[in-house]
Specification:
The protein has helices at 7-25, 31-72, 79-147, 150-156, 166-172, 192-196, 258-269, 272-285, 295-300, 362-365, 377-381, 484-487, 546-624, and strands at residues 180-189, 203-224, 229-240, 253-256, 290-293, 302-303, 317-318, 326-327, 332-335, 347-350, 386-390, 395-407, 411-417, 477-478, 490-493, 500-513, 530-541. It is of the alpha+beta class. The chain has a domain at 151-544. The longest helix is centred in the C-terminal third of the chain and has 79 residues, at 546-624. Residues 36-52 have a biased composition (Basic residues). InterPro entries: CD36_fam (IPR002159). Belongs to the CD36 family.
């Protein structure tokens, strides 16, 4: 078997053989040793053959390894460099394995930390959500309390006159604790005979009164309609109160003969045979322009022959306040406020008609005033002008806000008064133009012509003692002393509920002397259409009991305190929750910023480590190449 001709193997074999021969030279050259040497040579050749085979396998493996390394970074490397690279790779692998193990622990703890952090963040988000919910609730409450009437409407809804409601029952049958008084002042003519005979320059009159009556009012013939209105009539009874009166009902008074003066006016409007017949009938009955009566007769009625002729009232009895006692002849329809509180108490019909027929234009005939006992709350809140429909005038009158006052037990109220120009001439108050049928014949400022309202009796109402009227109207009278605090109408109205809790409604009834054929001779000294005052009346509220005052006090200050607490409480809660939410978002943003900075630092460190590894790999690649 021939030896391989490979140079490296032969040299190795030669060196080995020389070593063996050198070892055997010192020994005897015997046949046994040669035989032994041949045996060793055979054994060595066999061993060399195996060694060559192993080297070939090792070279193939190294070649494969070099080819693999050449795909990564380099070509074939020297054996020594391969050994160094192998050691370094093993070290790096070991180091990488340790780092991976360490990274696994770090990842585990990082995952645990992230879970805890997420839990904390979730709790923070839940807390923020709760805070935001409370903020929305507070904001809603703030909006409702500051910019809507919801709070007031909760309480005002109890005022509506719904069918079978407790409020409606109290309205129809008021509690006797709520006293209303009618105070009547009668003008007594003390020197009319002397004046008519020319013995006096002026007519001397004296204000007798008040004669005070307690008024008991109920609502009868009440019908609740489907259009949120209620129709009714007032039923009144009066009880004379001597201890509150300065004049008796049975005292003597000398006053104008109203039925005669009314008949004189009516007959003068007639023509032909009818006028002549009526005039003869009145002259047959006879009568003076002034007569002696008692206050009881003058106010509440007495049998009068002229009245029985149906020239004036169409009744056999006459009394200035006779129609006021008992069930009223007039029916009213007002809004209940169920559909709209802004319409609460507004009169919609008078005697079944949506418009009056007493005045020249629709503007004055419209019934858009309120019942005197109730007003729309929104008008009170805005201090708007209130229009009140008065049956005694057959028209509405304005009430204008004057000031805020305190009454009773320091209860706040809003004072409204009738304006000074309420009965002024159209040249001074254009709103009164439609109350005058002919502007060239309009009455002077201070009185109005309500003839049609009083069955064609020439009644000319005014303020008591001709307050705010032109002096020419009463220049023939002595005893007229107008004073604002005594003779002007005012009302102190509850600022929240809109009903009067104090006040005085004042009106004076006058008659115009027409000087027809009946009384012309008796009243020859009087000018035509001279105004003679008859009575003036004042309707007031009485002194409230302690429990009523306590109720008013609680409804005023208690509800105001609750409202203020809710208004400013919701505002404070809005600010608190808004501050908490903003602060929480700021803290979260700051924490997120810190985490980003920390992550950025870690990322930079990782990039640096990767760069070092890349440089090490590049260095190894250069060494291999």
């Amino acid at each position: 078997m021939s030896l391989p001709s490979d140079k490296v193997t032969t040299e190795q074999l030669t060196l080995t053989c020389d070593d063996c021969i050198d070892d055997d030279v010192t020994v005897q050259q015997s046949a046994e040793k040669q035989h032994q040497r041949q045996s060793q040579r055979q054994h060595y050749r066999k061993h060399q053959h195996q060694h060559q085979h192993q080297q070939q396998q090792q070279q193939q493996q190294q070649h494969q390894q070099c080819m693999f390394n050449s795909n990564v970074n380099a070509d074939k490397r020297p054996q020594k460099a391969e050994n160094d690279l192998s050691l370094k790779i093993k070290y790096k692998r070991s180091e990488s394995k340790n780092k991976k193990t360490q990274s696994l622990f770090e990842l585990f703890f990082e995952m645990v930390g992230e879970k805890e952090q997420r839990t904390r963040e979730m709790g923070t988000l839940i807390l923020l959500g709760t805070m935001f919910l409370f903020f929305i609730i507070s904001l809603t409450g703030f909006f409702v309390m500051w910019f809507t009437e919801y709070y007031n409407n909760i309480f005002l809804s109890n005022l509506v006159l719904s069918r079978n409601s407790e409020t409606a029952q109290k309205w129809m049958n008021p509690n006797s604790k709520y006293d209303t008084f009618l105070k009547v002042h009668i003008f007594n003519y003390t020197n009319i005979k002397d004046y008519l005979e020319g013995k006096a320059e002026k007519i001397q009159i004296k204000d007798l009164g008040p004669l005070t009556y307690k008024e008991h009012t109920t609502k009868v013939n009440v019908v609740f309609n489907d259009n949120y209105t209620v129709t009714f009539r007032d039923h009144r009874n009066y009880e004379f109160l001597p201890d509150k009166s300065s004049y008796g009902e049975h005292e003597k008074i000398f006053v104008p003969n109203v039925p005669l003066l009314a008949a004189d006016f009516l007959i003068d409007q007639m023509r032909g045979l009818k006028k002549m017949t009526a005039s003869m009938a009145i002259k047959t009955i006879g009568g003076n322009a002034f007569k002696t009566l008692t206050p009881l007769q003058y106010l509440w009625g007495y049998r009068d022959k002229i009245s029985s002729l149906n020239f004036a009232s169409g009744k056999s009895h006459f009394g200035l306040l006779m129609n006021r006692n008992g069930t009223s002849l007039d029916s009213l329809q007002i809004n209940t406020g169920e559909d709209d509180l802004r319409k609460f108490g507004v009169v919609t019909q008078f005697n079944g008609m949506p418009l009056l027929d007493f005045w020249s234009e629709e503007q004055c005939n419209r019934i858009d005033g309120s019942d005197p006992s109730m007003f729309p709350p929104h008008l009170i809140e805005n201090r708007s002008t209130l229009n009140v429909f008065l049956q005694v005038l057959c028209r509405k009158i304005p009430l204008k806000f004057e000031k805020q006052v305190t009454i009773f037990n320091n209860i706040e109220a809003l004072r409204y008064r009738t304006p000074m120009n309420m009965f002024s001439h159209p040249s001074e108050n254009s709103e009164n133009e439609c109350y005058c049928r002919n502007t060239q014949k309009c009455l002077p400022s201070g009185i109005i012509n309500a003839t049609k309202c009083y069955d064609n009796i020439p009644i000319y109402p005014s303020s008591p003692h001709f307050f705010a009227a032109e002096p020419d109207i009463y220049k023939h009278l002595d005893g007229i002393e107008p004073r604002q605090e005594l003779h002007q109408t005012f009302a102190d109205i509850h600022p929240r509920f809109g009903f009067p809790i104090n006040g005085a409604s004042r009106i004076q009834i006058n008659i115009a002397v027409h000087k027809g054929s009946i009384v012309e001779q008796q009243l020859r000294r009087l000018r035509r259409d001279t105004i003679l005052p008859l009575i003036w009346i004042e309707i007031t509220t009485g002194d409230f009991t302690e429990d009523i005052i306590d109720t008013l006090y609680a409804s005023t200050y208690g509800l105001n305190l609750i409202q203020c607490s809710l208004k400013y409480g919701t505002l404070l809660m809005c600010l608190i929750f808004f501050t908490i939410i903003v602060a929480s978002f700021y803290c979260l943003a700051k924490k997120r910023e810190i985490q980003l900075e920390k992550g950025e630092k870690i990322l930079k460190a990782e990039l640096k480590a990767l760069n070092r590894i890349h440089l090490s790999s590049a260095s190894l690649a250069q060494m291999q190449s």
